[in-house]
Amino acid sequence: MRIKSPSDFWCGLLFAAIGIAVLAVAGQYRLGTAARMGPAYFPTLLGGLLLFLGFTLTVPALFKDGEPLQKLHWRPLLMVLLSVAVFGLALAYLGFAVAVAALVVVASLANPDLRPLETAGLAVFLAVFSIGLFVGLLGVPLPLWPGGS
Known about the structure:
Layout: H1 6-26, H2 41-61, H3 74-94, H4 96-108, H5 116-137
Helix pairs in contact: 1-2, 3-4, 4-5
């Protein structure tokens, strides 16, 4: 059988695979009832919804024409993943403010057309905004700078 909409087909399979994985992990915990939800209740619900969404994308993709798969762009994918890893490491050793700025700078490398001044401005804005939101408004105890407070 020929897949007429490869983009929808593979997207649906990805959703279904994630849904199955979530259901498998959630199956190790107690489900409970709607009145007394156990630790597996919400993940099971989300896993089931993902599986259903995957099914509703994959099956029609076999019958209706759609877009072909696009070329995979490795640079943005790797830079975004690397930025998350850099954030985690920087948070542990350099504090929240530097970690947010590092996240923005590394993620900006995904697009070679961005200008350094724009990236620096965005990094400063997001660091200040994040500190105001998480530390100021929500009261999350995060080390802001290297060495502590």
